[in-house]
Amino acid sequence: MIETLVGFAAIFVLALLRVPLAISMGAVGLAGITYVRGWEPALASTAQVVYETGFAYTLSVVPLFILMGNFVARAGLAHELFQAAYAFIGHLRGGLAHATVAACAGFGAICGSSIATAATMSKVAYPSMKKLGYSDALSTGVIAAGGTLGIMIPPSTIMVIYGIITETHIGKLFAAGVIPGILTALLMMVAVVLMTWHDPEHAPAGQKYSWSERLEALRGIWGVLLLVIVVLGGIYGGFFTATEGAGMGAMGAFLFAVARGALSFKALFEVLVESARTTAMLFTLLISATVFANFVNFTSMPMELKEWITHLGLSPIMIVGAMMLIYVILGTVMEELTMVLLTIPLFFPIVVQLGFDPVWFGVLIVMVIQIGLISPPVGMNLFVINTLLPKVGLGTIFRGVWPLVVVLVITLVILLFFPSLSLWLPSMMD
User: Which of 187, 217, 264, 416 could bridge 84 with an S-S bond, Cβ 3.0-4.6 Å?
Assistant: First the structure.
């Protein structure tokens, strides 16, 4: 127990000293295993982790989905999604904000990245909202929160990583994210309605489109629908695995980008480099977190923590609720993926021991990551938007996003007490 606590403390100290978290976790994990087992087992264990992670077939889905998302962004499919959503609901007060949420949900279904979704919508939706007189607070808050839908609505790179770490069926995880993703999007729209009702100056009503114009706008999103049907339909239908689906999606997005003339040799090189850079970052984090997790497993902490929690006298659902509270608090001060990779080795065995479905717990994990992505002071989506829109201060973004943080917390509570919302679709795959 003491060794693990010292390890966690060392990681936090190194993080405060601005040492990259991947290096911190890897170094502390290696040093910890050395202390517990010796140099030779530590080096052998670390070498095995690096080799197995680098050559794991199941992990090849990660760079493929990243590549798919980058091709989609280059192809400009996000613009068509936004226009189609705006054609249907843009005439309502706050209609552009509603359209942004809907477009984020659609883009998330072909991207799988929260940051990419938020960055893309900053370029697509913000200029339109600014032109119509939307407040910067509402505009940026909706884009930041809507961007988080990219990791809940499948395909999701976070779900893939969770599935690999916990050996949970990735296809079922994807299915489990559909209803929670739609629910989150709808509740975000409710929040927009309440915000514009409380302060109408936030968002004026837009123009109303005829039904012929709306149908014309729908024709522009056939590429998005085709990609979603091919990738997710193929996975759910059992025609191919998640990895094969990611490959089909990446190829489909590539062909769309080429067909639209958006992929010169220079652009292709930039996409490949960006995809490689993102993949390398994720793999480095994953390797380092696995090394640290091995160190934790070599100590007595998992068993002692499990015994301590079970002797608290709390109901199983309250124990999981306490875990979620810890995650929400940690998400305000830690990078979300690192937080999850650090804590999964501790919490996941307890959840399984309590008899809960790993798929359901995976959805809860993704939801707390969503909350962390837009929670001050270190919410990554907030800083991405601030970087892309430097004229909008962080304080303004914080003011606009906090009602939507509340929405995500409410959604987390709903999913915690109603597991069937997450497990109904996966149960259809049995």
Answer: 217
* Euclidean distance between CA atoms 360 and 343, whole angstroms: 17
Q: What does DSSP assign to residue 55?
A: T
Q: What is the 3-state secondary structure (H, E, C) of 202-254?
A: HCCECCCCCHHHHHHHHHCCHHHHHHHHHHHHHHHCCCCCHHHHHHHHHHHHH
Q: Do the beta carbons of residue 158 and residue 427 sit within 8 Å?
A: no
Contact 183, 421 (CB under 8 A): yes
DSSP assignment letter at 118: H
pTM over 0.85: no
Strand partners, 93: 205
**b/e per residue, 71-86, with b = 16+ CB within 10 A?**
bbbbbbbbebbbbbbb
Domain that holds residue 255: 2-427
Q: Which residue has the tokens 């249907």?
A: 88
What kind and span of H or E run contains 344?
Answer: helix 336-353
Which of 376, 425, 429 has the alpha carbon at shortest distance from 400?
376
Q: What is the pLDDT of residues 56-79, one digit of tens each?
A: 776 777 788 778 877 877 777 777
pLDDT tens digits, 303-352? 666 677 767 777 888 888 888 888 887 777 666 676 777 778 778 888 88
Q: Which residues, in sequence order, are CB contacts of 241 under 8 Å at separation 6+?
A: 171, 235
Q: Are 379 and 144 in contact (CB under 8 A)?
A: yes
Rg (CA), the chain: 22
